[in-house]
Design brief:
- The chain has 902 residues and is mainly beta.
- Among the domains are: 143 residues, no CATH class; 107 residues, Immunoglobulin-like, CATH 2.60.40; 125 residues, Immunoglobulin-like; 127 residues, abc- transporter (atp binding component) like domain (Coagulation Factor XIII, Chain A, domain 1), CATH 2.70.50.60; 68 residues, Sandwich (Immunoglobulin-like).
- It has 10 helices and 56 strands.
- Strands 1, 2, 3, 4, 5, 10, 11, 12, 13, 14 and 15 form an 11-stranded antiparallel beta sheet that branches. Strands 36, 39, 41, 42, 44, 45 and 46 form a 7-stranded mixed beta sheet that branches. Strands 17, 20, 21, 24, 25 and 26 form a 6-stranded mixed beta sheet that branches.
- The longest helix is centred in the first third of the chain and has 20 residues.
- This is Thiol protease/hemagglutinin PrtT.
């Protein structure tokens, strides 16, 4: 791929249509031929491996995957001329639908490819894109010119010299060698390193920095409630030359083909552990969703514990124009190194490494899965420069984009420092401060958003314009815990005094007395002020047990005499455990109840079985649902004890299916416990309950068949025991879930796909791409093992009583065999819901889907209106990163929706 043509040269050779249209398979293959011609493997045979169906336009496809020769590369061609023509490509490897389906790291991206193309078809002017016209016009078109070749392939000291093998790491052994093990009731669970830690460590390997970590860090491991701490000063130095650059999924060195040595595994494992602790990793087994954290935690630990540049920060795309964002990507790759990049979409999120840049805004990505599926890809499906409106041009991972900016070592010569436990700050003429007013009040609680103010005076003869950092040293300790930094640079003139406001999250700090410290930036490094910024005492408020609902209940619909399981997500928001009776009531009548134990701060799903005499006696009608516990206290959602509505109908025949419905996701439960979602492994030693979340673009009414199949692409269950028919009703842009259970004796294959099919009166409709894959194992990986199956494992062992992988699932009341889990459960919400919101827990954006244009008002939990948004019909992406963490309510027409801002 050596020849490149200017835009003008290609434009002069064009002769193509000026009206946009769907791209048919033969045309897609021709475009792929145009793209590949002239390369060293240009003559290799092309084969189409997948066409993503467009359910709204019969016979058309949203995109095409076309492979070249035998593992000689692939290209993903858009199915519509109005978007950019090439979505992703590689000059090596092979890609098909099943391979993408089995790789969680890119599955979400391809979901967004499809949804963005569908959006473009409905909202973008009906004319072909420039990239399509250029590609269609010439049969010797070349791939976009590389502006920056993939950095993980080359040496940092000389980018013209290739490494023996590209740097590409993963999350399993040896990367999780030091990741903790959970032991629960004699069962052992090995956790993985996490994609954030793997992405950061990959870039650190490229820099080969630092020689050793320094300082101390601690945090609370969310899934176990255990305190995790590490003294970096006590750890050995890193031997970067003894960390193989490329390691495959079997733990083999890609350069030699041999399994890595014990010393190599130890070096890599320690690095991943050190980074994981630094970013407050919520460790978990791969089968339950893996380990996760927020990229925003990275700058503090990389600067303070790993000696990276003090300017390092995590930035969000929504705060930048497209031009500024892409200029930042190019500058970071040119002057600093590979980029740790995070993307979040409705299909999920993943942290990965961007290490290359090509013309037309293509980037090269290492997905952090041992070199699997690495490729050049677009993170903007629509071409730049157009007026695409809300949600337009937002790319394969939506606007939930973040990246680490200015990531480079603090000095390019590695001094192999021997840090002291109590480093003394050195006065600096570029910014010397005195503290004129310490933090007040001195009493704080283990809560988020604790405001602290301190006044500082610039006693130097120069102005200061940079950041300040607040940290705390617990009484009896010599190590500082970083609390927060100022959100933007602060200007303090020479001789001037400035009041600084910090908003600290103290939820993970232990109770006790602390000395507060302020640091400022000098010569790119944090310098701590000699004076104390005050003292504080941290304690917790005593509230007792307090059970609250964490989301609104869907409207539950059933028929007279037909019991349902009603599931309510709750949390014990108090500081004491609850152990007692919880009852569900319909217009005051108890319809289900039982004994429940819920620890302080524990989340759970209460599954109320209603096969009781009281429920059976209820007549057709509408009922208000409430829940009481303890001595008559009410479970509330917001400020209301009315949690939802139960509708009981007279029995009737199911209606003929009209409209559309698709599978959005699926969650799995066994023995009353959540066991994972897509790609998880379930046990064949227990019945499997599948909760299928559904979505409709145009509304749906009628029968839908849920099924599992062991053969990808099938539109029916492997047997009748693998199928369940439900009658549902959904409004336009509606969403909800149904459940069905498969007996353990029917789980006979090692892999299945969950999907649905319905008949529109003419034919069966099934989107095979939406199927959710899962695995079945006689060796029950989710339920742990009784012995250590990782030879030489060095991860700490944490003993817990009831490991929380996902929310706890508590069955309340009798559960007879005649009650099918979720017979008509939450899907009833959709019959009356004309607006929906997702995700319900967000840090960057939320999406509001509504059947008609209108207004949305966003209120804080205290009732203050914080935003007023104009909505268009369909999906509306709303930025929420500017909101403080907490609970918010969204009023849309006559509906009230809720989300939690992290």
């Amino acid at each position: 791929m050596k020849k490149h043509f200017s835009f003008l040269t290609l434009l002069l050779g064009m002769s193509v249509t000026t009206v946009a249209a769907p791209i048919q398979p033969q045309k897609a293959k021709q475009l792929a031929e145009n793209f590949f011609k002239g390369s060293k493997n240009g003559g290799a045979k092309l084969k189409m491996s997948y066409q993503a169906p467009d359910e709204t336009k019969s016979g058309n496809s949203l995109y095409y995957i076309i492979n070249r020769g035998d593992n000689q590369g692939f290209v993903v061609v858009s199915g519509d001329t109005r978007t950019r023509a090439i979505l992703a490509y590689s000059d090596k490897g092979y890609l098909n639908e099943e391979a993408i389906h089995e790789n969680p790291s890119i599955h979400g991206m391809f979901i967004e490819f499809a949804e963005q193309i569908e959006w473009a078809q409905q909202n973008i002017e009906d004319k072909p894109s420039e990239s399509y016209k250029l590609l269609a016009a010439r049969n010797d078109f070349k791939e976009p010119r590389h502006l920056i070749e993939p950095l993980l392939v080359v040496e940092k000291s000389n980018r013209n010299v290739n490494r023996a093998t590209p740097i590409s790491w993963g999350q399993d052994w040896p990367f999780n060698l030091y990741s903790p093990n959970i032991v629960d009731n004699g069962r052992r669970y090995k956790t993985v390193s996490g994609c954030v830690a793997t992405g950061i460590a990959t870039v650190m390997r490229w820099h080969a920095w630092p020689a050793r970590p320094q300082g101390y860090t601690s945090y609370t491991w969310e899934s176990t409630g255990k305190r995790m701490a590490i003294n970096y000063d006590e750890q050995p130095a890193y031997d970067w030359n003894n960390m193989p650059e490329g390691v495959d999924a079997y733990g083999r060195d890609n350069r030699t083909g041999r399994e890595i040595t014990e010393a190599q595994a130890d070096n890599i494992g320690r690095l991943l552990r050190d980074v994981g602790y630094g970013v407050k990793m919520d460790f978990g087994p791969a089968q339950t969703g893996g380990s996760g954290t927020f990229l925003t935690y990275a700058p503090a630990t990389l600067v303070n514990n790993f000696n990276y540049d003090g300017r390092l920060r995590c930035i969000s795309r929504q705060n930048f124009s497209d031009a500024a964002w892409w200029a930042g990507i190019q500058d970071e790759l040119t002057n600093y190194g590979p980029i740790v990049y995070a993307g979040y979409s409705r299909g999920g999120g993943h942290c990965f490494v961007v290490d290359g840049l090509a013309e037309n805004r293509y980037v090269h990505v290492d997905w952090g899965w041992n070199y699997s599926s690495n490729c050049w890809t677009s993170i903007d499906v629509l071409e730049p420069g157009g007026d695409h409106g809300i949600g337009g041009g937002i790319g394969a991972f939506n606007r939930g984009h973040q990246m680490l900016r200015y990531l480079k070592p603090d000095g390019e010569v590695n001094p192999n420092p021997q840090p002291e436990p109590k480093p003394q700050p050195t006065p600096d003429t570029k910014g010397v401060f005195s503290i004129v007013k310490t933090v007040s009040p001195a009493q704080f609680y283990q809560e988020a958003d604790q405001r602290m103010t301190v006044s500082v005076k610039n006693i130097s003869n120069v102005t200061y314009n940079s950041y300040f950092k607040l940290s705390a040293v617990k009484q009896g300790s010599s190590y500082a815990t970083n609390l927060t930094t100022t959100p933007q640079k602060v200007y303090v003139g020479s001789g001037s005094t400035k009041e600084l406001s910090f908003y600290a999250d103290l939820r993970n700090l232990e109770k006790g007395n602390y000395d507060l410290r302020i640091s400022y930036v000098s010569n790119g490094k944090w310098t701590e002020m000699e004076q104390s910024a005050g003292r504080m005492t941290i304690s917790s408020r005593s509230t007792g047990a307090k059970v609250v609902a964490t989301s609104a209940l869907p409207t539950v619909t059933t028929f007279v005499g037909e019991a349902v399981r009603i599931e309510v997500p709750v949390m014990n928001a108090g500081d004491a455990d609850f152990n007692g009776t919880i009852e569900m009531r319909a217009n005051g009548t108890v319809i289900s109840g039982g004994e429940v134990t819920l620890n302080a701060e524990e989340r759970a799903t209460l599954a109320f079985s209603t096969n009781t005499r009281n429920f059976q006696s209820l007549k057709a009608g509408t009922y208000n649902l409430t829940i009481t516990y303890g001595n008559g206290q009410s479970v509330t959602y917001g400020n209301s004890a009315n949690l939802g509505t139960l509708i009981i109908k007279s029995k009737q025949q199911p209606a003929t299916a009209t409209g559309d419905v698709r599978l959005n996701s699926a969650f799995f439960y066994q023995n009353g416990q959540y066991v994972g979602s897509k790609y998880s492994t379930v046990s064949k030693n227990a019945d499997l309950t599948i909760r299928a979340y559904l979505y409709s673009s145009n509304g749906f009414k009628g029968a839908v068949k849920l099924f599992i199949t062991d053969s990808y692409g099938k539109t029916s269950g492997s047997s009748a025991a693998h199928e369940s028919v439900k009658n549902i009703q959904m409004d336009k842009y509606g969403s909800g879930y149904v459940e069905f259970t498969v007996k353990q004796s029917e789980l006979t294959s090692s892999r299945y796909y969950v999907n649905l099919v319905y008949n529109d009166g003419k034919k069966d409709i099934c989107r095979t791409w939406d199927g959710v894959a899962f695995y079945v194992s006689a060796y029950d990986s989710y339920y742990g093992t009784t012995t250590n199956t990782y030879p030489g494992d060095k991860g700490t062992v944490v003993n817990v009583n009831g490991a929380k992988f996902g929310d706890k699932y508590i069955a309340v009341g009798a559960n007879n065999d005649n009650l099918v889990a979720g017979e008509t459960n939450g899907i009833g919400t959709i019959a009356v819901q004309s607006a929906s919101l997702y995700p319900t827990v967000a840090s960057e954006t939320i999406t509001i889907a509504t059947a008609e244009a209108g207004m949305a008002n966003i209120f804080s939990a205290a009732g203050a209106k914080v935003a007023e948004i104009s909505l268009k019909e369909g999906n509306n992406t709303i930025a929420v990163s500017q909101f403080t963490p907490g609970v918010y309510f969204v009023k849309v027409a006559n509906k009230t929706l809720k989300f939690v801002k992290k």
